[in-house]
């Protein structure tokens, strides 16, 4: 299981949203990076993941299932991971908590996994290239904060020609693995961490969209200026 | 002389600017109120104290001078100057303070004596002090500039007009200041209360973008390429190059439709061409390579994850003793994973696969898993059975022999094709052919019976038991179904749990499992044991059989 929340943050390409700042280009993403660096205490890691989402056809089972193959391109040798996202927790209790808790099955696999799944009869549903950075740290739970821009590929498998789906907005995702016994603590840890990021971005369950935070510009400015002052 | 600064009830005693135009003058106040006002301006008690202190200081200095004069010593002029300046300062302050309120006070001597006789008339005079008088004159001049020649009432009115103008100007200024305070968030000492809000257009745009992004990342909306436009690019990115390309060219992985027909003609040895491609997976051209030779089959297969022990295995220590060994974790997990996925192999594929009565080699654990799963799913009317070999060793797959069997090495759809196919496969195949028919009928019935039972570990055990009950050639390496073997129990249980216990996330699996019960024939329940049966040694089979038949 994992707990997950998502949010959006404006990135530099959003020039026309910056007009009210008199042309000062506020790098919200950079500000977020500075904030995370201060909060987490670990260096950021680059992320470049080619995500292939495969769906099984109707003849493979009663219900089509979906599996995601993630190829990590940031390392010199690409490594593959297979990931199956299960259903989310439901019920009155789930409504009250602000993070989404869902079952997840993930495993490292060999690089022939794509061929294997095609052999099984899975078909490529869509693919995505995510580029950005990630912070992994321990704060009540093993939390992973990923800030990426989602890119789509105009042609099949053409990761070099990827263009962002939304040029001005990047996705922030916070996940933490959990088990059935301890998921409430993990939820609490993730929620409290999200509060630290409140000045910059709203975080919510993946299906719920919240918009951007109005104080984001001011918060980003203050983050950037503080850091500028301290670099000697 | 004693000066009494008392509250003067009537300020009219003092000269005042013309009352006509001077609305700013206080109206004649009552005694108490003036006293209070004066009290704020000048604390009389304190003035008295200071005056007394000053008096004492001066008298001290005079005494010091007397002492110097008497003792005829030169005084220290610096000290004296210092004291003198202090006294001077204090006097100046007192006089200044009194000057501020001098208008409210009048000297009222109590008695006349020689001391104050000379100064008394000056004090009692109502004439202003020269400075005050000059000040008053200047102010009056300023006010009445240009009005002095008019009649008095006109002067009054003009002055009133001026006052009104000043009043309106003051009010306007106050308003501007208040507005500015609000605009800049300074108002009323509460700090910035204004939160910068995005205008609605921007907010709507951002909302729309956010929905796009979330939908794309979570559900893949907007990322799907139409099947017509899906063709492999000329240059694949590096991480996909060796994954997707085959020796015979590329195929469209996104589309299964054309694959079957494509590969059909390449089945040279498939005399039972019931349905064209057998267990076709899209793009797998390995299926189409009918290389009869062992080496030919493994053209592009790369066996990444499992170690490849050298062939032959019949006499290797592994094969002799370790038919029950659990495979390496790599293999095991891989196979487990694959098994989970194998549950969903279409039944069509199974049928096709089994319709091909050909020997196959599937050295990879993936294939192993596939065939086992396919077998499991094969209950529904298949008359073939499959045996699989452990990767890295002799592996042979048997499809249920029909009348015409053609022994052909063929690769399953797995990409893991091993290079080291058994050397004597063909020979074995020929031998096998004759033997396959032995247990064709028996095996079918056994498996069928086994399959009829509930899908649990028992079925697998049963199936394995039935399988092993068949006599096999010494050289044949069979899929050891020893579910009952002690060493195998554990992994088999695991696999069983995975297969049958996956209720939460994989309903398809359960359905597939359930479907299997209806078939007339059971595939091997060798799935759990497939991992372990990589030790083919036919030599051992009898041993195992005995063991498993406990």
UniProtKB/TrEMBL annotation, chain A:
Gene3D superfamilies referenced in this protein's UniProt entry, alphabetically: Hypothetical Protein Pfu-838710-001 (2.40.320.10)
Localization per Swiss-Prot or TrEMBL: Nucleus
Species for this entry: Elaeis guineensis var. tenera
Keywords, sorted A to Z: Activator, Nucleus, Transcription, Transcription regulation
Binding partners and assembly: Component of the Mediator complex.
Protein's UniProt name: Mediator of RNA polymerase II transcription subunit 18
Keyword Acetylation appears in the UniProt entry: no
GO molecular function: transcription coregulator activity
Family matches, as PANTHER family: MEDIATOR OF RNA POLYMERASE II TRANSCRIPTION SUBUNIT 18 (PTHR13321:SF2), MEDIATOR OF RNA POLYMERASE II TRANSCRIPTION, SUBUNIT 18 (PTHR13321)
Alphabetized InterPro entries for the sequence: Mediator_Med18 (IPR019095)
Protein role: Component of the Mediator complex, a coactivator involved in the regulated transcription of nearly all RNA polymerase II-dependent genes. Mediator functions as a bridge to convey information from gene-specific regulatory proteins to the basal RNA polymerase II transcription machinery. Mediator is recruited to promoters by direct interactions with regulatory proteins and serves as a scaffold for the assembly of a functional preinitiation complex with RNA polymerase II and the general transcription factors.
UniProtKB/TrEMBL annotation, chain B:
Biased composition (Low complexity): 1-25, 329-361, 393-417
Chain spans, region Disordered: 1-27, 282-417
Keyword Transmembrane helix: no
Biased composition (Polar residues): 295-308, 316-328, 369-392
Any single Gene Ontology cellular-component annotation: mediator complex
UniProt cross-references to PANTHER family, sorted A to Z: MEDIATOR OF RNA POLYMERASE II TRANSCRIPTION SUBUNIT 8
Name recorded for this polypeptide: Mediator of RNA polymerase II transcription subunit 8
Organism: Elaeis guineensis var. tenera (Oil palm)
